[in-house]
Amino acid sequence: MNYDLEERTAKFWESVIDFLKTLRQDSINLPLINQVVKSATSIGANYCEANNASSKSDFRNKIFICKKEASETKYWFRMIARANDDKKDSCKILWREASELTMIFSKILTTSSK
């Protein structure tokens, strides 16, 4: 089985886009939307950069950013769920994927230091 993390991060972002389009555009949601756009897009972008890293140190730094942004994305989905009771189930699914990505990047960091 071929596992493509670059594709997985892209599909995650596509799911985030589709979800964000369903949210009300109000004074509570707009800042939350802006934050999750920044953190969620950063995951895949930094993973692409990691794949083209100029050194092992550069690779580890980009993977660390991926992990950090995935973790931050979980936080924003928690806040979005709190602000939108009707979207809790969708938030839970996206939160879970961000959580899995956080664990994957943590594992990459652990194994790349050996």
Radius of gyration, in angstroms, nearest whole number: 15 Å
H/E series: HHHH
Helix residue percentage: over 70%
Report the major sheet.
Answer: none
Shape: elongated
Low confidence ranges: none
**Derived structural class:** mainly alpha
- Average of pLDDT: 95
Number of helices: 4
Strand fraction band? under 5%
Give the CA-CA distance, first to last residue. 25 Å
Q: What is the total tally of β strands?
A: 0
Strand-helix topology:
Layout: H1 5-20, H2 29-51, H3 56-83, H4 88-112
Helix pairs in contact: 1-2, 1-4, 2-3, 3-4
Key phrases:
single chain, about 110 residues, mainly alpha, 4 helices, about 0% strand, elongated
Short description:
The protein is an all-alpha fold. The chain has four helices and no strands. The longest helix is centred in the middle third of the chain and has 28 residues.
Could you walk me through the main structural features you see in this protein, from its secondary elements to its overall organization?
This protein has 114 residues and is mainly alpha-helical. 81% of the residues lie in helices and 0% in strands. The protein has four helices and no strands.
